[in-house]
């Protein structure tokens, strides 16, 4: 059996490229958006000259449902019964069968085992998996292609993504691992949701997290294989954490000014760019005279108008 | 003095092109977005094969503030004191001075006259004006260019825009007046906000409207010059009206599924595509075997998270 460290060796930019070739005919090209207002707010004299964001629509359940419908095979999605209605509806809209479980991993795995016994279905893990990491890394490829279309020969300075289970961040870091673009991660700090950041400080992965942060997509601890990538300083430069109030402030800006509909989890990277003084100083130093363009991955937009009302009511 | 009918003669595609050349270096290129979910909903067997939308960020106050800051001249924006906080904040963020008035046109004009007397400022009318129509018509030009990038040699079948004062619709219709693409308008029906549609039926412009439709950007009657364009069957094919509930349903879809943050006024065109049986039949007939692509202009996104909460709470 291959160890996580060995598997991590195989996570190369070429593996991400291969994943992209596979999925490209079937996926929506997420547009790279820019916003003058956010540029202005982020670009006080010491900060990067431009700020770009990529709204990223997929969550795992919806992606799996879409893949199954593309392949014309049935999909069974196990979701905690407390999932937000929009996530459930989004998954069902692609034709998948949603099966509810309790919210602990033990409860979830029991339901999964039962379905597998009945249907011989293949389990597709949500983040801690080689192929999933490569697939999520295709975000970086789309982002870079669109950045180049807009910015010409300039090199993208940095990318920041949210970290929950860490698949997206590990995938993006894999793709940029042989390039100049630096990769950062962002987490909520509420009730210890910043397990990745704390793990990096302690030199050891944090295995369990119990938090009710509003960034509900980021309540998971970083996976084992993802940790191999993210804890590699050559791949991920640093991980930062933001408060619930900072997440809400960033979310309001994205909704009201950038006009993009995002869930709280999506904007932790933006919140770091706007509010974390350490990150801002780093950008100032690294960017030098030319400045850096920092791309921010927004993942995702699975929320409802009712949830927005509750959050800001 | 030139009559409105004579002025309307000068509203040509070339005039819109000229306006675009002037503003292009200074404006954000609004992306043409597509959404599979909305395509599917709109494309029951009898309806168009694809649906495309353009979020359109400007309202007049913000556009004027931006123009003034680009030219480095002061701007004084007169707004009703009941304006939404996001509109006020958006305008101020571009450096304009906001001056409040009552909400009737008489109250507003008195404040304007006072400012002009004090400052010699030039009055830039919000919609019923040759140059404003050409400027708003540049929406059509951006839309067409991006449609061609995506659709190749196929011709865009139709465009539908909201109608309040009618500048946007008249501008878009002006640009497409020598092309195959047909132009339609959409209004709320609540409390007679469908003044344009009613005027067309009666063969005479409706001069006053008093409505509290949630489409608060569309509470204005169509302007005199705009009426010249919109009532010309060769330029605007038809105007449709939708209910408050239809507007809310369309808005929820755009926010939750398309992930674009829009105000109620923005989605009246989408509501027509989704819910108006007459329009859907027309599209079916006109589109023929090939089907039509219908582009929907979303204008605008001037709302707040609190307003969203109130609307859907």
Automatic annotation (TrEMBL), chains A, B:
A Pfam family of this chain: PALP
Alphabetical UniProt keywords: Lyase, Pyridoxal phosphate
Taxon lineage: Eukaryota, Fungi, Dikarya, Ascomycota, Pezizomycotina
Organism: Penicillium daleae
Protein name: Tryptophan synthase beta chain-like PALP domain-containing protein
Cofactor: pyridoxal 5'-phosphate
Similarity comment: Belongs to the serine/threonine dehydratase family.
Tryptophan synthase beta chain-like PALP domain mapped to chain residues: 48-299
Gene3D superfamilies documented for this protein: 3.40.50.1100
GO molecular function: ATP binding; D-serine ammonia-lyase activity; L-serine ammonia-lyase activity; magnesium ion binding; pyridoxal phosphate binding; serine racemase activity; threonine racemase activity
InterPro entries per the UniProt record, alphabetical: TrpB-like_PALP, TrpB-like_PALP_sf
């Amino acid at each position: 059996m291959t160890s996580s460290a060995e598997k991590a060796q195989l996570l190369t930019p070429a593996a991400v490229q291969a994943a992209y070739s596979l999925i490209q005919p079937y996926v929506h090209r997420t547009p790279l958006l820019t916003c003058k207002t956010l540029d202005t707010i982020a670009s006080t004299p010491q900060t990067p000259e431009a700020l770009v964001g990529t709204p990223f629509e997929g969550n795992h359940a919806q992606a799996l449902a879409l893949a199954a419908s593309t392949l014309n095979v049935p999909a069974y999605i196990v979701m905690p019964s407390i999932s937000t209605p929009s996530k459930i509806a989004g998954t069902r809209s692609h034709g998948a069968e949603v099966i509810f479980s309790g919210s602990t991993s033990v409860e979830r795995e029991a339901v999964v085992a039962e379905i597998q016994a009945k249907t011989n279905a293949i389990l597709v893990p949500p983040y801690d998996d080689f192929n999933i990491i490569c697939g999520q890394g295709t975000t970086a490829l789309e982002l870079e292609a669109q950045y180049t279309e807009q910015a010409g020969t300039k090199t993208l300075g940095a990318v920041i993504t949210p970290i929950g289970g860490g698949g997206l961040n590990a995938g993006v870091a894999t793709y940029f691992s042989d390039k100049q673009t630096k990769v950062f991660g962002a987490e909520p700090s509420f009730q210890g949701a910043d397990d990745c950041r704390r793990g990096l400080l302690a030199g050891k992965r944090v295995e369990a997290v119990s938090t009710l942060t509003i960034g509900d997509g980021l309540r998971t601890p970083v996976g084992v294989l993802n940790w191999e990538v993210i804890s590699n300083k050559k791949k991920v430069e640093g991980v930062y954490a933001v408060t619930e109030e900072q997440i809400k402030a960033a979310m309001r800006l994205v909704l009201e000014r950038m006009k993009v509909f995002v869930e709280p989890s999506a904007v932790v990277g933006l919140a770091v760019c706007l509010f974390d003084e350490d990150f801002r100083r780093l950008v100032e130093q690294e960017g030098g005279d030319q400045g850096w363009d920092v791309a921010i991955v927004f993942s995702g937009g699975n929320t409802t108008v009712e949830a927005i009302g509750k959050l800001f009511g």
